[in-house]
Amino acid sequence: MPRHLSTLRSLTALTAFATLSTASAEESGKPQAPQTTTPARTGNQELLAGTYSVSIPAITCVHQGSAPPPAPMTCGGGGTLRTDGDNTFPCAVNSNATLNTYVCGLNLPSGAQIQEAIAYGYDSSTVGYFEAAIWSTADATLAVSYFSSFGGTWQNSGVAFNSGYSSFPIFSASQPAHTVVAGNRYVIGFATRDPIQSNLVFGFRVRYSLP
After folding, report:
1. Which terms are listed as keywords in the entry (predicted)?
2. Which of 11, 98, 133, 177 would staple 154 via disulfide (CB 3.0–4.6 Å)?
3. How far apart are CA 90 and CA 150, in angstroms?
4. What mean pLDDT, rounded, does the chain reach?
């Protein structure tokens, strides 16, 4: 091979090697985008340990029995403007002379510890009341388990009480916490009866913790 061709080939190879080395060095000097990973979320692991509360509106609970439920209580104002010009919205469960019972689902993760449950409403009748209780039932049975310290005695606003706003515990904060057990249905039941229709049920607040 002529000497000049051999020299040219060597220079070409050296230039290519230098170019690749420079590019590699420049690439290694560039800031690298951080590598992100999505944490796996299984079951309740995405929930942090701590204390929480959940509020259940009475108007979202289901009426039981064949008797027609009382008409929902409506409220007005608050900037409400309906399509037909109305200014009202549903806000509470009203009462009538019939004992009307409702059930609300209490959907808490297994392992949660119920610390307190309170019923809220309005009672301005000396002949009416609203009552409530909390319980669980195993998925495969119909047997009720009242785990509150009140047992199966439904707590109430007082038949003769007529002073307006009323609240009472259905699971007392003074008793040991109850741990939600997997494979059980948890509910809050409430009822109202008042011949003069002066009882309203607002809803419930449940405080619980996750270990």
Report:
1. Signal
2. 133
3. 31
4. 84
Q: How confident is the model at residue 20 (pLDDT cuts 50, 70, 90)?
A: very low
CATH of domain 50-69+91-210: 2.60.120
Cβ–Cβ under 8 Å, residues 111 and 61: no
CA-closest candidate to residue 201, choices 65, 105, 91: 91
User: Is the pLDDT assigned to residue 10 strictly greater than 70?
Assistant: no
Tokens representing 15?
């230039």
Encode pLDDT of 138-184 as tens digits: 999 999 999 999 999 999 999 999 999 999 999 999 999 999 999 99
Q: What is the pTM of this model?
A: 0.77
DSSP string, the chain: --HHHHHHHHHHHHHHHHHHHHHHHHHHHSPPPPP--PPP--TTTTSPSEEEEEEEEGGGSEEESSSPPPPPEEEE-TT---TTS--EEEEEEE--SS-EEEEEE----TT-EEEEEEEEEEE--SS-EEEEEEEEEETT---EE--STTTT--EES-SS--SEEEEEEEE-TTSPPEEPPTTEEEEEEEEEE-TT--EEEEEEEEEEEE-
Q: Which residues, 6+ apart, have CB-to-CB distance to 150 below 8 Å?
A: 133, 170, 171, 172
Cβ partners under 8 Å of residue 171, min gap 6: 114, 115, 116, 117, 134, 147, 148, 149, 150, 178, 206
